[in-house]
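Entry — protein

Goal — fold tokens:
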Amino acid sequence: MLTKESAYQILYEMTESPSLLRHARSVSIVMEALARHFGENEEQYAITGLLHDADYEKYPDQHPAVVVARLEALGETAIAHAIKGHYTRWNVPRQSLLDKCIVAADELTGFIVAAALIRPGRLEGMDARSVLKKLKTKNFAATVDREEVQKGADLLGWPLPELIEFIIPVLHAHREALELTG
């Protein structure tokens, strides 16, 4: 069974970019909180978040096939499947709550972190209203797929503001480790 420690080893083998490493850690933290909320396996969810983009930097044209193959070889089929379908346009069916949670956590967490980075207080005082306002600004964090953000909330059956309000305090609790202090 893959542990969080061995997942970090895989991540560091394939990823060097500080921003991509922060994204992996932040999505992992949010996934772990979602697992806790739903009474699921926290380590499995955290590992899924940690490795979902692990091969993106070194193998962008093959992403996520490289990390998926590695996870399948380790017998981690549930994590591999969730990562294989962490973007809805890839048309991989989301069969489990894990599959849905990674979609809900990925783009939105990245967007919230991007929004925090331009605020003097970072996550301090951030709320869903300010994030939703930034989402309407198309040229801000332009690579974030706004449709994917909404699809993630829809997959969980949560209104988008509620998902945002779930994620912000999770990130805030880990702000030092994520270098998101004001």
Remarks:
- The chain is about 60% helix and 0% strand.
- The chain has a mean pLDDT of 97.
